[in-house]
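Figure S4 source data
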Amino acid sequence: MSLTAVQDTSESESDHGPNSDQADPNAARLSSSFLFRSGTPRSRQSSPGHSPRPGTRFGDADSETTSCWGEGFSVQRRSGKRRAERAWYSEKRVKGFVGVIGLVVFYFVMNWVMLLRLQDHRLHSKSWFSGKSSSSPAPVSVTIQAKWKKNGKGKRPAKGKYGRLLGLAAHALAEGYSKPEPKDLWQEPFVPASSWKPCADQRSWEPNEGKNGYIMVTANGGMNQQRVGVCNVVVIARLLNATLVVPKFLYSSIWRDVSQFSDIYQEDHFINYLSPDIRIVKELPKELQSLDLEAIGSLVTDADIPKEAKPSFYLKHITPILLKNGVVHFLGFGNRLAFDPIPFQLQRLRCRCNFHSLQFVPKIQQTGALLLQRLRHSESHPGPLDHYLVGPYAASIEKENEGPAKKVSKYLALHLRFEIDMVAHSLCEFGGGDAEQKELEAFRAIHFPALVHLQKTKTLPTPAVLRSEGLCPLSPEEAVLMLAALGFKRKTHIFVAGSQIYGGRSRMIALTSLYPKLVTKENLLTPAELEPFKNFKSQLAALDFIGCTAADAFAMTDSGSQLSSLVSGFRIYYGGGLTPTIRPNKRRLASIFSKNSSIEWRVFEQRVRKAVRQTKHVQPRPRARSVYRYPRCNDCMCNMTLVT
């Protein structure tokens, strides 16, 4: 039997068990009704065997009654005594049963009160999504309900699709306050993971003189897509024996960021570190600057290059242009170089560029170090990746926290890839109805015209099919259910990368209600500290990159996200087996979430943990997969267990 068949069998069997959250209210109602009918005060008053009344100033009432009725009453009194004894025994049994029922009712009432208090806890201030910072934000009260409140723009996001599961999650978090977390929650299999060591910095070739001409590149997308484009063009420059001009970044109508290479990365370090591999200059020679590159055929766009083109494509089609005109300009260059097949040394150069040559500028490193200090609270030493992320400012983390050693404060980083561009491009539905569809269609018409054309000319999968195939990003509600099922406690410190969540604060109600110790960089950094990065989304993304990469555990919600891919790869390359990453199998999770109206929480936990645990297995890079995300391969890392 295949693995899929086994999963389907187990899922069908487990989903037909008793539904605990439906049984509990009935038990409470039955118990309340029983107590109302047979309350202790009433039964004591009506019972013939109740304790005699106390004496009065006229003497004992019972003795007076006996003397009045004479000896004829003695037989009746004995039979009455026997009846009273039987009644007392029966009452004792009833009292015991009532006591048990009372304890059960008390248990359910207390759990219900705890659940209400958990749901009605106070949240962070409006600074969450308005960009206003505060070290101790003023809370605002919200409740997880089936009917969500409208946000500031009058939009209504999800209408409680997961209301039942969120209630069970809140109950489980309240109950599990004192329970230990699963042992593997904050770790990955250490021995097989730690056997891989970084070695992309090792070279075994002579420098490339770049005699065939100059390559210019204008990389598109956000910071992470641009990073991939830079590493790819470095490899192409070596492949074509060309000189690379320091990359430029294309202005994006979505990102609206004018940041260039030197605003994000240390330009001189980039040039010097890669000098043994390729020749890099800061600008074209003057005699080439005046050329109309489009007119002479030296302008090459993404439309001219197949996605993940092989090296042979560049040798065949780009080399002649380079030799003829002396320059080629790749405009909008992104994911245009295949991962396989590619020569070993070129693949290693790709890794060397990503993991070694691209270091953030001091401004970003310094603010990133400050962010890590505040994320860790009382930790007295920098993390294992800090040096590679914030350079010399890692020492300031240790200096800032000098003094008696305190308990380390772990934090989980969560990348919610749920911005409007991602939501619109996915073609999925997220419970917003017609208003959501119209808004996303309008966004696609402006920013993704090619996708709109494809919708009109091709028959594309329906949103339901896309979701069942695992092609939709996890919503914030699904993300919090995954974290709760995995065993992360309510008091877990969570850092959320990015704050431009589609749907705004109302979409975050579930996450912030179940995990109140949740922050973003806007919460932890003051307006003055964020001012140098204002309106520079790529530079802000670099701060998120630092916060996610240095985390004790990292959870992604969309494996196709470039930030998640680069962060997880960086954690593998430098983490030494100490930095686990949670990569949800969205196809399996979609199957589990589809049972949200009936599945028991215990079964939900088991299935989510099984689905996620399998993605934490340590394995070499699969063929044709990204070396930026899967650096465990001989091109990037060295497996020490194979070294003799």
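Figure S5 source data
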Amino acid sequence: MEAIFLCLISLVLRVSGITEGDALYALKSSLVDHKEVLQSWDTSSGSPCIWFHVTCNGDGNVIRVDLGNGSLSGQLDSRVGQLTKLEYLRLNNNILMGTIPMSLTTVSSLEILDLSNNKLTGDVPDNGSFSLFTPISFGNNPLSNNSPKRTPDSPSPISPKPLTPPTPSGNSAIGVIGVIAGFIALGVFIASAIVFVCWRLRRPRAHFFDVPAEEDPVVHLGQLRRFSLHQLQYATNNFSNKDILGRGGFGKVYKGRLADGSLVAIKRLKEERTHGGELQFQAEVRMISMAVHRNLLRLQGFCMTSTERLLVYPLMVNGSVASCLRERTDGQSPLDWPARKRIALGSARGLAYLHDSCDPKVIHRDVKAANILLDEEYEAVVADFGLAKLMDYKDTHVTTAVHGTLGHIAPEYLSTGRSSEKTDVYGYGIMLLELITGQRAFDLARLASNEDVMLLSWVKELLNNKKLETLVDSKLQGNYIVEEVEELIQVALLCTLDAASDRPKMSDVVKMLEGDGLAERWEQWQKKDIICGEQNHSNFPSNNWIINDSTPGLHPEELSGPR
């Protein structure tokens, strides 16, 4: 009978057009929200399943409302009883006054009701199925009774008063027939509705969208903030496609606005679940958060549920180096040469910190222009470091599945799957060539001009043909210093040597970019190249490759000497 009664209530609510969102919004309207914990409760935002402190099941029905310790005052609206699928209602430790709504009696699915530590009056309603009730759930209300009761004058939800048809009198045979026909039609309608609604109720429940913490919604893991899935759903308009900033090998990145108004970038990871992955995820996230440097993107928080892994970062308003190089509109100025030099140095410093100052060292494994972000001052910020390791749940060692982007992957990493800091150096060298040329590391469009699709090979061919002016990004319109371009090209080619052992460390790259040791390193490589007798098939030809025919008075030997 209780199930039938619940089905009837559900049917009435459906027919009357009352939604769970309406019921929750009515509850919000009856309360005084001193701390704005109900700020997200807005009917214009769509389903209440994305509101803070609300949990739904897989069918989108509200099953949990958790408003304990919210500093809420006011009275409880009786329409809270219209949440017919509700299982858990927590309103403890607030300043609520007035009468406890007896409409909660009709919510037969309700198992836990916590109204403790308020100033409510009246009896705590009993729906007959509070199987998980404990004294603290309804205790500590000085003006209410301390046990669940049903008031004598309230109708029993499982024993509704039967309807009695009117007694016929006089020439009322037609009226009696009409009444009987009406009851038959009503009975058929109610039976059909009961079958349909109860069939929906018996469907197996899917997983919860999220299980919010019992404590204050601001939860921290060390210096990281742990967000609930609801908070990030609300921040991104339920992960709207309109808020997607980019897509990558690790997942999608969404622009979001938190409840305090701050803008964030939320990376929604795609991954395969493995047993025990939760603990490793937390451990790796904690390690990522410990890498703090001016040129590294700071991890602000994370979210972890049974179905989701999300990372929260501050939003970098100027996007990535890749977008600034190749996706700017006609009205936007291109990255000038001084900015590109600063980006080269800043990103080198960030990578050097990962390699030399983190314990254990962090190998990025996907260094490219798309993973170098720019802050308000166009300072380079290395992003996505640690994610390759974070996603490797089946192997905790460095020798794992190859992560990276075509055109950026070092040859030894591609052939063996073994990464090291020198694989990052290689990726950095390709990123320098992206900065100089504005080109993609791998671009099939170059086939139309009968040119090499791989950026490194394309650059070497132009250098062999002494076409430096063709190599440099045309968007600069000649506004660069030739000598500085040559220096960056030298650094890039040293970083992309075939043999990993021949490549410099990132700390050495920083020194070379700061003006210390490049000429000596370049000359040393030239001598080694000559001694090995590999001039004809080395990574790049001897020191006359860099000569620009349009630059008079510049001789090959000057490229290896002091500047």
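The first helix runs from residue 2 to 16. The chain has three domains: 2-148, 219-314, 321-559.
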